[in-house]
Amino acid sequence: MYAFSNAVNSRHSEDIKLLMSQASGKSLISFAGGMPNNDLFPVKQIDDIYNSLPDNIKKLCFQYGPTSGYPPLIQSLKDHLNNKGLPVQDNKILITTGSLQAISIITQEFVNEGDIILTENPCFVGALSVFETFGAKIESIPIDNHGIDINALKNKIATLERTPKFLYVTPNYHNPAGIIYTLERKKELLETLSGTGIILLEDDAYSDLYFNENEKYLTKSMKSFGVKDVEIIYTGSFSKILGPGFRLGYMLSSLEIFEKAETVKQALDACTSNFMQILANEFLAQHKLESYLKFLRIEYLERKNLLQQSLEKYMPKEVTWNEPKGGFYIWLKLPSHIKSTDIFKESVKDDVVFVTGRTFDPDSKKDDRLRLSFSNMPKESIEKGVIILAKAVEKVLKNVKVKNT
Question: Is the distance from CB of 284 to CB of 73 less than 8 angstroms?
């Protein structure tokens, strides 16, 4: 028996392992994977980019780089984020190996074992795993269709004996809930945090994937609101807009937070892959990203519409959901007397998988929801998958009804 550290005992880490295996099961109809479909990747554009690089840059692809990131990529990111209204002149960018590493770095920078972190409920399972790994005490606040519950947040802050190190939120096309915070809710959140000393960790992986150009304004980052009395750390990712295999993320923060984060990053992996940073930089610098994003928005909207239509046609009336305005996910609400884990046991018999609601609950208990991802699904499989899922729901509903009579 080995004397493992407490760090390996995250209860959500096993959920992530299962999720990744379900997402990649070739024989499955998988609504589990929060990832792009392989057929959507810009393979030809990346081929052309690499083949056109001069030899000295190709050689640089194989070399170590600065811990903070490949300088041309940092400049390209500054331009990209500046166009989104983010205060790049007053803050520093750190390139990370995926945005999950940014979350991990920030956690290591601020959290000692037993310190409090506030999260939404439900919450991105990857972040939960990181917070648990570093021994944080997680206190969660429910969300509604407009964002985090402000009254619940105020009550939580008022009842805690210690000041939380930060509040972690995913306000744009939430994972897993699929919602986007209203601008009013974002303002209320900043007003609530004002004067508390609680840092806001704003995770923004999906804001470029809106479906309606007229609703793009809703994706405005809280970091861009110009609030001076709330410290905001902003994280972003290339995983949803270029490819998760690039393992590229970034954080935008004040100089003091950046300097400590760079020290943590140095100890973790010295630097993020130069190869991927150079390719990503050229993709941005050659202005290929926006046309590719337009293509992705059309593709994901088609998949969302197919899933929405199939759910409306086949799902029992007892199941409800909100139609998302962007992103990857639809979050189904079940009757309180049935569990998504029981539905999973039925649907997996017919090779249909999804992610259970319990996975996203910081306490791993609340199980009256399930997450369906449409981003990775072949269009021709969506209706068939929903038919099987709906039958599984009907069977569980029937079994519970029989049991209770």
Answer: yes
CATH classification (class only), 43-285: alpha beta
Cα separation, 294 vs 303, in Å, equals: 15
- CATH 3.90.1150.10 domain residues, the chain: 13-41+290-403
pLDDT digits (tens, 9 = 90+) for 129-187: 999 999 999 999 999 999 999 999 999 999 999 999 999 999 999 999 999 999 999 99
Residue range(s) occupied by CATH 3.40.640.10 in the chain: 43-285
State the pLDDT at residue 375.
96
List the one residue out of 12, 20, 8, 251 whose CA is nearest residue 128: 12
Tokens coding 245: 């295999």
pTM, to two decimals: 0.94
Q: Does domain 13-41+290-403 have CATH number 1.10.3720.10?
A: no
Report, as an integer, the average pLDDT of 334-348: 94
What does the pLDDT look like over 200-219, one tens digit per residue? 999 999 999 999 999 999 99
337: Cβ–Cβ under 8 A, 6 or more apart, which residues? Answer: 400, 404
Tell me the three state secondary structure of residue 181. Answer: coil
Backbone φ and ψ of 139, nearest 5°: -115, 125
Q: Which of 255, 256, 257 is nearest to 91 (CA)?
A: 255
